[in-house]
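We store chain and fold; thus.
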Amino acid sequence: MAQNIEDFQQLGVQMTQSYKNYIAGEWVAGGSEIENRNPSDLSDVVGLYAQATADQLEQALDQARVAQAEWAATGIEKKYNVLMAIGTEMMARAEELGILLAREEGKPKAEGKGEVYRAGQFFTYYAAETLRQMGDSADSVRPDIEIDVRREAVGVVAIISPWNFPTATASWKIAPALCYGNAVIWKPANATPASAVALTEIIAKQDIPKGLFSLVMGAGSEVGQRLVESPKVNAISFTGSVPVGKGIATAAIQNLTKVQMEMGSKNALAVMDDADLDLAASLAAGGAFGGSGQKCTASSRLIVHASVHDEFVEKLVAATRKFKVGHALEDGTTIGPVVSERQLNENLRYAVLGQAEGAELIIGGTRLDMPHDGYYMQPGIFVGSTNDMAINREEMFAPLASVIKVDSYEEALHTVNDTNFGLTSGIVTTSLARASHFRRNARTGCVMVNLPTAGTDYHVPFGGRGDSSYGPREQGTAAAEFYTVVKTSYISSGTPF
């Protein structure tokens, strides 16, 4: 272990340098820089990253409008080649870029590699979609008139992406934006700038119009706010918190800008009395604690039938103890650190709050002292919680899960739906009737049957209900609804003689 990590640390020393924004086709320094440190080892400085100025943002926006018109007129095979090249390179470099992602975000290197590879698949998928942009034709209700219905690019798209999946989430937004002929202004989370620069370097080497894609790193309160308020932006795709999302929506409506937002969650996994409890415990532990609980699809509420409650909890604790919390680059680590000191302090606050509300913390929920100075936390499990507690109402984004005891399937379903959020939900059962009823009646955008709540595919729609999502769905062919506008044309060709 020491040798591997020492190698990565040495690499980090060599890479401690300043990284620029990519504005209107040029790499440029910003008005200031921020320091990016490895949450597994705070002595490891990943790099210094430029913060865009207001003038640079305006330059990016102005050039994007010019580039977008050129890109929209570019042939579909050229678009295919560009997107395919991006995706292919990402998949080929998944190991290298996955390690970089793990260094700055804290997820185990195997997960980092998997995220980068999956991000590459988004680009190759949407490369193929460039060749499948088919319109519709219809006859008019009026004689001798034909109707053509097709989709066109929405224009300049602002993409604001989160830190928890810094490469994948950005990719599933950028890829369809380019696929459908749009320009992109990308503002990534300031917590994970290294992954943003790495992806931008791959995109920048492609044969695309100058300014079609710009990277504008900076604080959300400054660059992000200016971006969403700009009348030069035609659409905004955002993933982040509910309060920030509501602020974006408020700003966007002033210019009637199209918005798509994926926000918070409070996902539930229901474990029935007929469930395979070994499977249920494995699904619950993986879904709750994978990625240090820093997933919008994490299972933070575990709703368990009373008759199997005690046995399930025993198996869940055993499954949780098998996780190895450690340095993200250490072989065998299954849970890395949380992303920042701020996030760790917030997580620990929820651990205290849950106990103050009357829940019992039976394992974990504490900061860990490790050989490397980082933001390590032991996964925690609450029992004796009720659905009206804050720990079961608010998104914690932490390696914390609450067990809620219920007496029936009906009560379980009611509890699953008793939330302001509605992203994912799941049920563990051997009953086809219960599984089918749950799938139809759970009020969430994604429903899992005998699967963890965390884990979705790239070729089908993704999104939620309630406070979880606003606007059209992401991913798959559903992405066209956001990244395009529909044009209906009426043609009267006259008589041929």
Notes: The chain has 15 helices and 21 strands. Residues 109-130 form the longest helix (22 residues). The chain has two domains: 2-263+467-486, 267-449. The radius of gyration is 24 Å.
